[in-house]
Amino acid sequence: MKDWQEKLKDRDVIVGVLGLGYVGLPLAREFALEGIKVLGFDIDAGKVKTLNSGRSIIKHVPHRQVRDMVESGCFSATTNMARLKTVDAITICVPTPLTQNREPDMQFVISSTSTDHSDYDYDWIVKHSKLVVDTRNATALVRRGARRIVKA
After folding, report:
1. Mean predicted confidence (pLDDT) in 102-112
2. CA 35, CA 29: separation in Å to the nearest integer?
3. Do the beta carbons of residue 40 and residue 31 sit within 8 Å?
4. Which of 18, 49, 102, 152 is found 20 to 30 A from 66 (Cα to Cα)?
5. How far apart (Å, rounded) are the C-alpha atoms in residues 33 and 139?
6. CATH, residue 26
């Protein structure tokens, strides 16, 4: 069985991106541009249908790029959280607004992994993660770190 570094180098991984909004979709694009397969998860069936048809849902990711991602086989989207079982890594890109005490409100992060259709929950994902970062830093990590790993 291949280890993580070997699988990543061979592009033999599937990255799950939970939340396909203004953070998740650009992050998915960065992985797909490197030839890494991405399975995107979102609770909005309309958004999933639009993305799978090759059309973007945000202006910062052009339709052409989404179409290329889908046609290359590097990207698909789903509302089926049970498909989390099929990915090798999970990134969570959902809103974290501030509470009244100015602390991150983790309700969206926790609820994104606590559906009736998922065998995984937030505690399981954190426990089994090698790296946990906030969504603000996720894209920077991919651009800086993952490209170095992939090209190694």
Report:
1. 67
2. 10
3. no
4. 152
5. 13
6. 3.40.50.720
**Tell me, what's the pLDDT at 58?**
95
Query: How far is residue 62's CA from residue 51's CA, in Å, rounded to a whole number?
Result: 11
Q: How many beta carbons lie within 10 A of that of residue 146, not counting itself?
A: 16
Residues of the domain holding 105:
4-151
Tally of domains in the chain: 1
pLDDT value of residue 105: 67
Task: Residue 54: name the closest of 38, 70, 40, 77 by CA.
Answer: 70
By C-alpha distance, which of 114, 39, 24, 36 is closest to 83?
A: 39
* Cα gap 134→41, rounded to integer Å: 18
Give me 92's structure tokens: 């969570």
Letter string b/e over residues 88-100, b meaning 16 or more CB atoms within 10 A of that residue's CB: ebbbbbbebeeee
| pLDDT band at residue 145 under the 50/70/90 scheme | very low
- Of 94, 104, 92, nearest to 132 by C-alpha is 92
Q: Are 109 and 125 in contact (CB under 8 A)?
A: no
